[in-house]
Each structure stands twice: as C-alpha cells, then as structure tokens.
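Example record

One chain of 125 residues, shown exactly as stored in the release files.
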Amino acid sequence: MDTRNTNVLVLAYLGDAIYELYVRDYLVNKGISKIKNLHKEAINYVSATNQAKFLKLALENNFFNQEEIDIIYRARNHKEAHKPKSTDIITYKYATGLEALIGFLYLEKRQKRIEEIMKEVLKEC
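Predicted structure tokens for this chain:
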C-alpha cells in the first residue's frame, strides 16, 4: 500500500479509531470504572476542538518532522463536502490533520511515534 498517496480522509478515518483506542485505554488504566464517567472524560480528548488545540500547539513547538507536517497539511487542506455539526470548519480540518497523521503512522507501522504523539496529547488535555 502506498501510504503517501492514500486518500487523507481514509487515513483520518483509520487514525480516528486508533486515537480513540489510545484515549480509552488511558482512561481505563487511570481507574475510571463507570461508563458515564469514561465517556465524559473521553470527550475532553477526542473532540475536534481539543485535537485542533493540541495540533496547533505541537506545530508551534516544532514537534513534528517535515514528512508528518506534509501529511497534516495535506489532510487539513483537503477539499471536502462534509460540513461538521459541532465545530467550525477550520477546527475540524485541523482535527482531521491530526487523525490523518495517526492513520498514516499506523499504516507505516511506526508504533513508537504514535505512542510519542499520544503521550503528548494525553499530557496536554
């Protein structure tokens, strides 16, 4: 599979699932045992607003290498007919950029880098 030319929305679709798995694992290991509380906490991490906030901060701090930045911007700048329900389009596109990067790294089997990113995400929220 040529991951560099894979549709960025496909990468984001996959990245969203992986991102959420990391968040859920983190929260369960944190000792939260009630589903209602798990869901409430998860929203702090998986919302487009918080994903975009993390991504912007990480970009400002030069956290990503050039290849990763290229994936993020390719996803962020992708023309899409979908209109987000719960946030503005700019925030949604930044969140899509982060999810696409996670999906790309997963397909590239770069687990260590995903773990580094998710460690920063979970630290920021």
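Notes: Residues 8-29 form the longest helix (22 residues).
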